Amino acid sequence: MPDQLIKICGLSTPETINAAVEAGASHIGFIHFEKSPRHLSLDDAARLRRHIPSGVKLVLVTVAMQPEPLERAINAIKPDVLQFHGGETAQWIKLVKQMIGIECWKSFGLRDKDTFVEAKTFDGIADRLLFDAPAHELPGGNGLAFQWDLLDSWEPFMPWALAGGLNPDNVAEAIQRTGAPLVDASSGLETEPGVKSIEKIEAFCKAALAA
Ligand SMILES: O=C(O)c1ccccc1N[C@@H]1O[C@H](COP(=O)(O)O)[C@@H](O)[C@H]1O
């Protein structure tokens, strides 16, 4: 696996999953959040999951789900990673890890340096921190970038990822400026909300791997 990790998020067809895998994505993201144009039902997600080969990790993105629906989603979809993209607490993620033993990521809308103080409380609990633009119409998946300069004062103490408005045209600069070990893109790879472009997926992965 190349050093640069890439997550292509919000996929909903076998064709786009295959394209992302072929282009070098290390992670595929499914959204299970009804307000999102990328929402997948449990049945659709379980069906699509079969198109992800071993060696490529499936990340299930959820937003502040209650315990029982979350458990149902995990049992149906069998993700490799859970991405918590709402106001989930460190205590809650610790409990999920203890009960299920699954890799957990916590996202943060990066507003200012105080976000790093909050992120520190997830040290030793989450497996990766994901910095995104602050919530807008949706908690994530808004296609908005944040000021990458904010990461100048970030001293990584655990694995992390960069998200928010990444696309084929800006991902190389984003990696060069921030040193992000994992880049994550969703709406910047679409022709309309929820519809991914194979050409954009390929161009994104190519640019990220060459950065
Ligand atoms: O993509 C969504 O619809 C979504 C909905 C709710 C929470 C998170 C969501 N997506 C995540 O948001 C970031 C950034 O996405 P974008 O590239 O700016 O569109 C990414 O981690 C997605 O997984």
TrEMBL record:
Spans through the membrane: none
Gene Ontology BP, a term: L-tryptophan biosynthetic process
Residue ranges occupied by any N-(5'phosphoribosyl) anthranilate isomerase (PRAI) domain in the UniProt entry: 6-206
Pathway the protein acts in: Amino-acid biosynthesis; L-tryptophan biosynthesis; L-tryptophan from chorismate: step 3/5
EC number: 5.3.1.24
Presence of keyword Amino-acid biosynthesis: yes
InterPro entries referenced in this protein's UniProt entry, alphabetically: Aldolase_TIM, PRAI_dom, RibuloseP-bd_barrel, TrpF_fam
Catalysed reactions, as listed in the record: N-(5-phospho-beta-D-ribosyl)anthranilate = 1-(2-carboxyphenylamino)-1-deoxy-D-ribulose 5-phosphate
Keywords in alphabetical order: Amino-acid biosynthesis, Aromatic amino acid biosynthesis, Isomerase, Tryptophan biosynthesis
Enzyme class: isomerase
MF GO annotations: phosphoribosylanthranilate isomerase activity
Similarity field: Belongs to the TrpF family.
Protein's name according to its UniProt entry: N-(5'-phosphoribosyl)anthranilate isomerase
Native organism: Qipengyuania algicida
